[in-house]
Task: structure prediction
Amino acid sequence: MSHPERRNAPKPAHVLVVDDEADIRELLELTLLRMGLGVECAGSVTEAQSRLQSQRFDLCLTDMRLPDGQGLELVRFIGANCPEVPVAVITAHGSTENAVAALKAGAFDYVSKPLSLEQLRTLVKSALNLPQKPAAGAATRTPGTMPLLGDSGAMDQVRELIAKLARSQAPVYITGESGSGKELAARLVHENGARRERAFVAVNCGAIPENLMESEFFGYRKGAFTGADADREGFFHAANGGTLFLDEVAELPLAMQVKLLRAIQEKRVRKVGATSEDPVDVRLICATHQNLAQLVEQGRFRQDLYFRLAVIELRMPPLRERREDVPLLAEAILARLCQGGDTKRLASGAREALVRYDFPGNVRELENVLERAIALSSTAEIAADDLQLAPQVAADEPPAPNARWPLQEYLDRVEREAILEALDRTRFNRTAAAKILGITFRALRYRMERLGIQ
Result:
């Protein structure tokens, strides 16, 4: 007599293995069967396409070189005909160019042979852990943060690419001006992907003193140096199984770039003072407001590391390129800032002033402007004067004759902007900000007090 719970048990996931070598197919099939998965095998692109058209699969593992074509053709075929099926490319003929091509074509992951059984199991579990493909525009928010708001075409493209990147393990390179939402985009890629239940570790590379970088990234053993009174794990260990977000990656010194490149290639890290390496499985997302390709040309950033990190680029548009989103963003920020207090609303003049303003600091500056306006406004309605927006000069107009004086006001404004930018880049780490500015911590503290910077 059959048991009801057996009748209702979920069907095992179905995997398609594509490889022209019978022994490799057999090894992969046995491993997957031991994981409780259903397996079908194919030895060519044509055979694989035929099986994909006649059966439903939850995952495809394919070799790159096949008798009648490239695994890349299969990646594109799956992307066009069954985009919900993650496909991983496993090859003995690995190259950076092939990896980039496969990941850009939509591959979930790209790994080189020989592949250990543990690596294979991790890959399969991650791929099968992908959430159901979200509807267009679903990747708009992540728990505990502001949603990625905006109805502009630019933001529709950003959300569409985030949804695609979330279904991949490809390294992502996020570009954009300060305050444009690069970290929020990185969190959305993580939260909508296979690693969403593991850690998201954000690191500001510009805020770490150079002499501490290796121990911060890779950890250290007790007694490795003065003050190391206990073992400590680094960023790679903390993000193991999850995502490591390297903000302002352009700030990494060349010596650290070499060590980071090796950790990415080997998927292993060695703690300072240790004699052995630890395996790590992290997805890397990096961001910077600088032009990495230009830094490579100048010799300030390693080309091989650039190719490893910048597989797929996600550009966050500045606020001035999507002015139509400003009213929506402003209302959402106001609602959040006024929680638990008096409700404020924007007067029509204030709304128009915000739309006209260029926002060099982007969404972060918009938030600061509104926070200040709430404090200055004496009524429930925020007027244009309450915003205290900096005067702007049109690009085709000559500057006003008094634009650079009174001299002290002009110098204070320049000094204030430089300090705020340094503090923003270092997440308000004043020691690191002082280093960027080339002044002592004591001098920075004095200048902040003089300029009223909290």
About this structure: Residues 407-451 form a domain with the Arc Repressor Mutant, subunit A fold (CATH 1.10.10). Residues 407-425 form the longest helix (19 residues).
